[in-house]
Design a protein that fits this description.
- By secondary structure, the chain is of the alpha/beta class.
- It is built from eleven helices and 18 strands.
- The chain has helices spanning 31-38, 53-62, 75-83, 99-107, 133-144, 168-179, 192-200, 213-223, 237-241, 301-316, 337-344; strands spanning 12-15, 22-23, 26-27, 42-46, 72-74, 92-96, 111-113, 122-125, 148-151, 157-160, 163-166, 184-185, 206-210, 226-230, 251-253, 274-277, 284-289, 331-334.
- It has a six-stranded parallel beta sheet with strand order 5-4-1-13-14-15, sandwiched between helices. Strands 7-6-8-9-12 form a five-stranded parallel beta sheet, sandwiched between helices. A three-stranded mixed beta sheet has the order 16-17-18, with helices on one face.
- It is elongated, with a radius of gyration of 22 Å.
- This is HAD-IIA family hydrolase.
- One of its GO terms (molecular function) is hydrolase activity.
- Keywords: Hydrolase.
- It holds the Pfam family Hydrolase_6.
Length: 347
């Protein structure tokens, strides 16, 4: 077994926030401890456009992180940077978003308006709990009259300690329904935020860490970086096993402690004494064994569950020749008590 720790492969970490570092106002267990021990330079990359970078940094400091506004990149910042290529400085723009988004637009040299009658050149939309019908109607009128439509991100939900709330993507869907116009999106899963983040850290080998397959993981993959999914937020074990190739993480961890564990413990391969097989005529994956009593992961339900998931992924995600498989996965079966207990902990 290699003694190489996972964090040793990389020179920086690009980190999601909601579901990865915190959930609403509550810290994700083990995240701070794992990242502190890993010691990688960090940039927090978030699709949430409702708060200014300094406000995010203030919350992170309250959780024990040593960071400031420059350690945070929001999708609102990415949207403003994207707009520079298509909207001339000084243009009128209508913002459906928080005050921090409006401030970014003003700082970029745009003139803010609130009515379609002012003929804005563009509409920017980011998450803002205060967005109402009248505001959305002005945005829809503007877009129907030819304004460019840019969204900070398309996340349909916003994770909180109470559960999943309505995200910016769901609000965007209302505008799309009214206008028939799809926005250009600046945030994850598109790769520019990750490329800009790596450049800010002067990183050549960053690892992208997140909890959501269709944004964090898909975006990191699209950027060409290794991705680590922590099973602490939106995407669960079953969804991960059946993910399409573009959304499959390079690595999986029960939590951030995976960074300071042996690298091979996070790879899709047989783990902790488990093996897996798949019949060509059966879309289910069979997880077998798990009798390696010397492996401490089996004593921890969360880590045993990830060990079984990685083992199952090793046959679900790859053909016999090692090429990515697109064959659907419809279920998981087990043939031992240890495997059954591990899979029972999946969500």
């Amino acid at each position: 077994m290699s003694n190489e720790l996972l964090a040793g492969r990389y020179d920086a970490a690009l980190l999601d926030l909601d579901g990865t570092i915190y959930e609403g106002g509550r810290a994700v267990p083990g995240a701070l401890e794992g990242l502190t021990e890993a010691g990688l330079p960090m940039l927090f990359v978030t699709n949430n456009a409702s708060r200014a970078p300094e406000t995010v940094a203030e919350q992170l400091r309250s959780l024990g992180y040593d960071c400031d506004a420059d350690d945070v990149m929001t999708s609102a910042q990415a949207a403003i940077e994207m707009a520079a290529d298509i909207i001339p400085e000084g243009s009128k723009v209508l913002i459906l978003g928080a005050q921090s988004f409006r401030d970014l637009a003003t700082d970029a040299g745009y003139e803010l308006v609130d009515s379609a009658d002012d003929e804005p050149a563009a509409v920017f939309q980011g998450h803002n709990p205060g967005t109402n019908w009248a505001m959305m109607s002005e945005a829809a009128l503007s877009i129907s009259r030819g304004a460019k439509y840019l969204a900070s991100n398309l996340d349909t939900t916003l994770p909180t300690e109470r559960g999943l709330l309505v995200g910016n993507g769901s609000m965007v869907a209302a505008i799309v329904s009214a206008t028939g116009v799809e926005p250009r999106s600046a945030g994850k899963p598109l790769p520019p935020m990750f490329h800009r983040g790596a450049a800010r850290l002067e990183s050549e080998r960053p690892i992208v860490i997140g909890d959501r397959l269709n944004t964090d993981i898909a975006g990191g993959n699209a950027a060409g970086y290794d991705t680590l999914m922590t099973v602490t937020g939106i995407s669960g074990h079953h969804e991960t096993l059946s993910a399409i190739p573009e959304e499959r993480p390079t690595l999986i961890g029960a939590d951030m402690s995976a960074l300071v564990a042996p690298a091979e413990h996070a790879e899709p391969r047989p783990q902790a004494g488990f093996t897996a097989e798949r019949d060509a005529d059966d879309p289910a994956v069979i997880v077998i064994g798990g009798g390696d009593a010397s492996d401490a992961r089996l004593a921890d339900p969360a880590r045993a569950a990830v060990a079984a998931l990685l083992t199952a992924a090793s046959v679900a995600w790859f053909d016999a020749d090692g090429a990515p498989s697109t064959a659907p996965v419809t279920g998981v079966r087990t043939t031992s008590e240890a495997a059954a207990a591990a899979v029972a902990a999946w969500r």
